[in-house]
């Protein structure tokens, strides 16, 4: 998780250390079990309804698994599951007519500081069909941060979306290696708060500089993996990394792993 404050909790009851630890893990929001340090992430992940358009799919699933490729890329990089995403390009009466979906967390990263983000990225299962549906090899899902830009010269601007646009994966129809958003792809803000815009996206390093150059200290509202509104895409994502943790998408929930 990014840098943020956490409230301390004390107990006035004398218990053995083991029993006290078990009670804290079971009932306290800031405990290891609750915040996912035992491997199970908080149950705050799901489709962000207000950011969903049309009838897309974003669900935790098994696989996908494939054969005839190197073993490292034939199955999800973590566990046995992933986040399956399906969006269509011409399925609504809106303009543009395409669908959009965000699968994310609106609770656990609230108030985290974007400038403390050091590691971010994911693995993706891209298909040859996705490439031909439109957009070519860069027809890919995104990582999105809803943020408060906190730019002093724009005191009434309290919302923007920070978007990572991944590069093309090297090979389709199999799992990709880790796609590092700090060294590949480009970033932009939907509200135009810095020079990093959709028409003039930035590298990760230049994005951070664009914030500091205008004295902005952006904080997070939500973190999500999403797709749209543009081209049809059917595939999967796994192993979302945020600094020292990896979020492993499994059929029974999201697991929080410590990055090596």
Written account of the structure:
There is one protein chain. The chain has 260 residues and is mainly β. The protein is built from four helices and 14 strands. The chain has helices spanning 17-27, 32-35, 128-133, 204-213, and strands spanning 45-47, 57-62, 81-87, 101-105, 120-126, 142-148, 160-165, 174-175, 179-180, 186-189, 219-227, 233-242, 245-250, 253-258. The strands form two sheets. Strands 2, 3, 5, 8, 9, 12, 13 and 14 form an eight-stranded antiparallel beta sheet that branches. Strands 1-4-11-6-7-10 form a six-stranded antiparallel beta sheet, with no helix packed on it. The longest helix is centred in the first third of the chain and has 11 residues, at 17-27. Residues 5-38 have low confidence and may be disordered.
How many strands appear in the DSSP assignment? 14
Task: List low-pLDDT spans.
Answer: 5-38
Indicate the radius of gyration in whole angstroms: 19 Å
Tally of DSSP helical segments = 4
Order of helices and strands: HHEEEEEHEEEEEHEEEE
Pairing-aware structural class of the strands and helices?
A: mainly beta
Distance, first to last CA: 15 Å
The mean pLDDT is 88
């Amino acid at each position: 998780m990014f840098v943020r404050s956490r409230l301390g909790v004390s107990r006035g009851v004398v218990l053995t250390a083991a029993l006290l630890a078990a009670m804290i893990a079971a009932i306290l929001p800031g405990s290891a079990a609750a915040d996912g340090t035992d491997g199970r992430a908080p149950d705050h992940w799901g489709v962000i309804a207000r950011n969903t358009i049309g009838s897309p799919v974003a669900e935790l699933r098994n696989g996908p698994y494939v054969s005839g490729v190197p073993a490292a890329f034939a199955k999800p990089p973590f566990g046995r599951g992933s986040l399956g995403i399906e969006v269509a390009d011409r399925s609504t009466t809106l303009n543009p007519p395409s669908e959009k979906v965000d699968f994310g967390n609106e609770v656990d990263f609230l108030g985290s500081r974007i400038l403390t983000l050091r590691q971010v990225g994911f693995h993706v299962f891209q298909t040859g069909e996705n490439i031909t549906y439109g957009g070519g090899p860069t027809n890919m899902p995104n990582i999105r941060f809803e943020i408060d830009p906190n730019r002093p010269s724009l005191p009434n601007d309290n919302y923007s979306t920070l978007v990572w646009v991944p590069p093309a994966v090297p090979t389709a129809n199999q799992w990709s290696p880790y796609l590092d958003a700090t060294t590949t792809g480009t970033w932009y803000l939907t509200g135009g708060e810095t020079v990093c815009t959709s028409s003039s996206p930035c590298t990760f390093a230049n994005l951070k500089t664009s914030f500091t150059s205008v004295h902005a200290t952006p904080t997070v509202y939500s973190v999500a993996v999403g797709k749209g509104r543009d081209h049809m895409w059917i595939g999967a994502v796994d192993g979302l990394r945020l600094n020292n943790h990896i979020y492993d998408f499994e059929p029974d929930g999201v697991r929080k792993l410590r990055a090596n």
